[in-house]
Amino acid sequence: MSAVLRALRRDAGARAGLILILLPLLAAALAGPLAPGDPLRVGTAAERLLAPSPAHPLGTDALGRDVLGRLMLGGRASLAVGWSGVLGAVLLGTLVGLAAGLGHARLDRALMGLTDLFLAFPRVFLVLLLAAVATPSLALVAAVIAATGWMGVARLVRAETLALRDRPFVVAARSLELPAWRLAARHVLPHVLPLVVLAAALRVGGAILLESFLSYLGLGAQDPTVSWGAMIEHGHRHLADAWWLAAFPGFAIALTAVGHNLLGDALRDALDPRAGGRHDAPGEGCP
Amino acid sequence: MIRDLLTRLATALLLVLAALSLVFLMARLAPGDPVEMLRDPDLDAAGRTLLRQQYGLDRPLAEQYVRWLGGVVLHGDLGRSLRLHREVSDILAEAVPRTLLLTVTAYLVHLATAIPLGVWMARRRGSAAERAVGALGLAVNSLPAFWLGLMLVLVFARGLGWLPASGMHAPDHASLSWYARLLDTLRHLVLPVTVLGLATAVGTARYVRQAVLEVLESEFVTAARARGLSERAVVWRHAVRNALLPVVTLVGLNLPALLGGAVVTETVFAWPGMGRVAVEALWARDYPVILGATGLSAVMVVVGNLLADLFYRVVDPRARTGGEGRT
Asked: For residue B135, which of A187, A235, B2, B18 sits 20 to 30 Å off, Cα-Cα?
């Protein structure tokens, strides 16, 4: 693991990625002292839809709120939902994969059938359906990302587990008649873990994009919580007269997603220098 | 071979059935039934009870399920929209061809761009231009597609005024001659297809590049070179032909991504297809429409995968006999 960390430290892409990932957190922390005025305060009529100027470097929105200040606050929602959604998806996928790989053949068939079933839906439709039956919130978006993103990890972990289960050390552990969870947690999971971490790292960028789309549809963050996706939705409604409203949050999302993708690619190279191009394959259907 | 095919077909059928059941369960197990969600101020408690009886929502869940599934399978009956007061199957029948027009065009543009670009990248591996395109691919993959769409609208529709911002037809579409109508539709297609097909092509090109490079390392390519074939013939006739099979299959199997992308694109450009129907139904909590659209999207994916699988068997002899003769 330390070799991996050393390789990451040497990788310029990884360093750039890390900076881009930490930037929104730093910005949110500094929004108080740095942002001109309170980003949540609704302005007077004279302050509405002002173009970028020294007083408001990125302009103001239709409620007279400072766009720069809101931009600095909005990253927290993206990161929180992106990370917790992927964490949920990876946990779920790992559990399903381990159970399918180590369990009875019948359990394996049932779980893989379930995986195929979820994969039969275009992710966005499944997300819309799930979102339709619940109340919009950021927690809902994270849950939906987890519930619709576990299948790839499950397949990956199952394949890896199946390859491991006939290796001598697993056979030996099995012959000790350890409880199933212990066999999975102590003897199989450590060998699958690097793969799982990589799978998670490669998915966060996509999850952040998905969060922004759902917030854009009004299914995520609700006022007064600031989120970049919701800011773009607001900008869409004023596209004709205030281009800055939609433009800047999109750049922020893109930079954060680029940061995660750079770090993910660097991690992949560090874990397996030969593997290439997995990230270049068409994505999982994330907007 | 026949048995293998029948197994595939049966699996696909089962999958469709399971998908429809999942959709039904998800909607019915959610808190509140569709009638409760109706925001009609004229509707009192008695009216709601009547509606529930009319729609059969007062029956046991199992009975509702059997009825619903029976209706779907036997008559293609997906119920009525709560908002538009029309048959869901009619709404979808109208929307699906529009989505297909958008996705098929985007798919063709995608492949027509990604394949030559990827081959070019493989041949110019390591050059500054190739690395720049690769970096561009990473950047484009990180852009929110709906935002990219808005920015294109901002520049090409609002700013330059070259292209229409949204919709599928101009208001005077019906009165135009046939070629003016064609031109009108094409003009409306440009921006959505750019987002759905063109922007993502750079990412696929990186994948094509990888596949071509791998084939270029194999022995039959060395043998072709040794026979004195021109580099052009080696690359296009030997390397690309063999590299494309996995690429085409991958993109074909990526139908969920294409349909999902269509939802995003249709929302931004107000393209009146399945995705927009689903999103508008979502805002109105119009369950029957969301159920129908989601179920149909799953059916399209399963059928699409089955077709891609069959296609693969036709073009690649190794996949034809499951097991025997496979290298």
From this structure: A235
Q: Which residue, A231, A218, A72, is CA-closest to A140? A: A218
| Minimum distance, in Å, between the CA of residue A254 and any CA atom of chain B | 5
CATH superfamily assigned to domain A2-38+53-275: MetI-like (1.10.3720.10)
Q: pLDDT tens, A252-261?
A: 999 999 999 8
Domain boundaries, chain A: 2-38+53-275
Q: How many domains does one find in chain B?
A: 1
- In a mutational test of the A interface, the residue from B23, B36, B141, B210 whose CB has the highest number of chain A CBs within 10 Å is B141
Contact A129 B26 (CB under 8 A): yes
Cβ–Cβ contact A155 with B under 8 A: no
CB pairs under 8 A between A and B: 181
Instruction: Transcribe B56-114 into DSSP letters.
Output: TTTS-HHHHHHHHHHHHHHH----B-TTT-SBHHHHHHHHHHHHHHHHHHHHHHHHHHH
Residues A240 and A66: their CA atoms lie apart, in Å, by 19
Q: CA-based angle B292:B296:B298, to the nearest 5?
A: 125
ipTM of predicted complex: 0.83
Specify the pLDDT at position A282: 37
pLDDT at B318: 66
Low-confidence ranges of chain B (pLDDT < 50): 322-327
Compare CB distances from B147 to A121, A132, A250 and report the shortest one's residue: A250
Whether B105 and B164 have beta carbons less than 8 Å apart is answered as no
